[in-house]
Structures are given as structure tokens and as C-alpha cells.
Amino acid sequence: MPQWKDLLIEIEKIEKKYGSSLREPALDTEIRKMNDNIHQRLGNITITQSYIEFLQKVNGLDFNGLVIYGIDEDFLDNEIDEELHGFIETNEIWYENDWQKKYIFYGDSDTAWYCFDLKEQLYVELDKPSGTLIQSYDSFDSMLSDAIETVL
């Protein structure tokens, strides 16, 4: 089991102390709708299966300054009552800068972006806003685990 799943349990415990909880998992229909629209709106990119597993556990995360993007509200079957940073819409914002189009953005924090570098085929943590490489990872799972550990 990826380490981030255990870390989500820790976050859930903290959220419960404050009367809050993690977001509900994304539905398979919602994931499919998002996937069907990615190529039209972002170009020839494919999201990793590990990210899909994350969405099946929790539809995005916003905890202690760390945001991992979820399913865009346009593709949700049910309305939600909290702000959700959608994967496609957030990547569209970052893609307004041409140099950022070489990345798939999965999340960000106050000081970093968590991405996949399409050219180097690596998961990376980049300094925000300079784009300087902070660290690279061999998998989405290790990048996500490291990002969560940073905010716990």
C-alpha cells in the first residue's frame, strides 16, 4: 500500500478533531468524464493510474497549505459546498505561461508545485514561482507521500 494512504488516515484524524473530514472519493463516472475532456482541453497528456487511485480515495485535498487537485466541478455528479481546485481548470491556469506546458500539475502549496515533467518523464517538486527544480521522484506515489509529509 502506498505510504500516502496511511498519511491520509493521519490527516483524517486531525480533520475530525476540528469537526471536519476528508472529501468523499470521486466516482468512476466522474473520473471517466474528466479523462474524456483532458485531451480536448490540455492536449496530449495522460494522468497516472496512481492519481486515479488517489481520486478514488479522496476527491482532492486541501490541508495545511497543500492542495492536490480533484475532479473539476463541471464533471461532478453531485454539487459540493466547498471550494475544489479542479485538475483541468488549474492546469489551464498554469498553462497560460508557455514554459509551464511541459508539466502536468497535480498539486501545489504556498512554496511548491507538484508535477510530472513530460520531457524528462519524472515527477518533480518545483519552486513556486521560479520553477526551479527542488526534488525529483520516481513515482506519483512517492511525490504525493513526500508532499503530505511536508505539511503534517
Description of the structure:
The protein has helices at 3-17, 28-42, 49-57, 87-94, 140-151; strands spanning 61-63, 66-68, 103-108, 112-117, 122-127, 133-137. The protein is of the alpha+beta class. A hairpin with a 5-residue loop joins β5 (122-127) and β6. It is globular, with a radius of gyration of 15 Å.
In short:
The chain has 152 residues and is an alpha+beta fold.
- Say how many strands there are: 6
Please indicate the percent range of residues in DSSP E strands (runs of 2 or more): 15-25%
Q: Helix and strand succession?
A: HHHEEHEEEEH
What percentage of residues falls in helices of 4 or more residues?
25-40%
- What is the 3D shape? globular
Count of DSSP helices?
Answer: 5
Radius of gyration: 15 Å
Q: How can the largest sheet be summarized?
A: 6 strands, antiparallel
Mean pLDDT: 94
Low-confidence stretches: none
Query: If strands are numbered along the chain, what order do they take across the biggest sheet?
Result: 1-2-3-4-5-6
| Distance, first to last CA | 19 Å
SS-based class:
alpha+beta
Organism: Fictibacillus terranigra
Protein name: YrhA family protein
InterPro entries: Knr4/Smi1-like_dom (IPR018958), Knr4/Smi1-like_sf (IPR037883)
Question: Key features?
Answer:
5 helices; 6 strands; 152 residues
